[in-house]
């Protein structure tokens, strides 16, 4: 099932999420649906709040960032259930990020190059892993979502002022995306 992506301006994107209990019904189906929704929208990550679910869950697939077929085989495709970032470290670096909930807006965001995260997979196996580079960045971006933080929150006041009108348009439903979106108050 492909869910509509929740657009900037909806309070669900600003709400800290709740832990998922182990008896959560149809969790594997939800994870599969999130992957399907993410791929349909040509994303590399999707967090539960972006489909209007206030759950500590996100999925990623770093393959689209890999141009070489051999490197694509090493890409990380993973669901993160009840994740907790334990540490962010390493050299900070800038990269132009975007977000399915904020189509048409891309800005440089500075993040540390490594992240250590503890999480459960869909079979409730616990993991504690270190990721770096682009995979760490995708994880940090999606983790922000489950904390009610958007990539635009990392921008300087000057950059925020420059994109304010674009964000206002998105929140009003004045946006062109090639995937289904849902706007706060059912606009458009």
Automatic annotation (TrEMBL):
<feature type="binding site">
    <location>
        <position position="145"/>
    </location>
    <ligand>
        <name>Fe cation</name>
    </ligand>
</feature>
<keyword id="KW-0408">Iron</keyword>
<feature type="active site">
    <location>
        <position position="142"/>
    </location>
</feature>
<keyword id="KW-0648">Protein biosynthesis</keyword>
<keyword id="KW-0479">Metal-binding</keyword>
<feature type="binding site">
    <location>
        <position position="99"/>
    </location>
    <ligand>
        <name>Fe cation</name>
    </ligand>
</feature>
<dbReference type="InterPro" id="IPR036821">
    <property type="entry name" value="Peptide_deformylase_sf"/>
</dbReference>
<dbReference type="InterPro" id="IPR023635">
    <property type="entry name" value="Peptide_deformylase"/>
</dbReference>
<dbReference type="GO" id="GO:0042586">
    <property type="term" value="F:peptide deformylase activity"/>
</dbReference>
<dbReference type="GO" id="GO:0046872">
    <property type="term" value="F:metal ion binding"/>
</dbReference>
<dbReference type="Pfam" id="PF01327">
    <property type="entry name" value="Pep_deformylase"/>
</dbReference>
<dbReference type="GO" id="GO:0006412">
    <property type="term" value="P:translation"/>
</dbReference>
<comment type="similarity">
    <text>Belongs to the polypeptide deformylase family.</text>
</comment>
<keyword id="KW-0378">Hydrolase</keyword>
<protein>
    <recommendedName>
        <fullName>Peptide deformylase</fullName>
        <ecNumber>3.5.1.88</ecNumber>
    </recommendedName>
</protein>
<feature type="binding site">
    <location>
        <position position="141"/>
    </location>
    <ligand>
        <name>Fe cation</name>
    </ligand>
</feature>
<comment type="function">
    <text>Removes the formyl group from the N-terminal Met of newly synthesized proteins. Requires at least a dipeptide for an efficient rate of reaction. N-terminal L-methionine is a prerequisite for activity but the enzyme has broad specificity at other positions.</text>
</comment>
